[in-house]
# Entry
Amino acid sequence: QVQLVESGGGLVQPGGSLRLSCAAPRSIFDICVMGWYRQAPGKERELVATIQVGGSTNYASSVKGRFTISRDNAKSTVYLQMNSLKPEDTAVYYCNANRAYFNTWGQGTQVTVSS
# Structure
């Protein structure tokens, strides 16, 4: 029943880069705000970045300038480019699609930043 499929997580050293992908059905992708959230051990799930259908973006202050969210309409896929990664970025990253009366999540992908 999972409609959002994340990929690209893994282990990376501090200062390194990683790109996450989230593939969504066309019917969801075309009408929803897409976003990335993360949850670290012992912490609540938090917003990382969102992107509107029209392309407007928002970022958490902790990742601004380091992360970039984008969407490829032809592939109905949203990306999260993560640069200058820090140990505190370690978390399970979840893809999200949201609109009025609809909200769904991917299964999550683990990102670990460690030396």
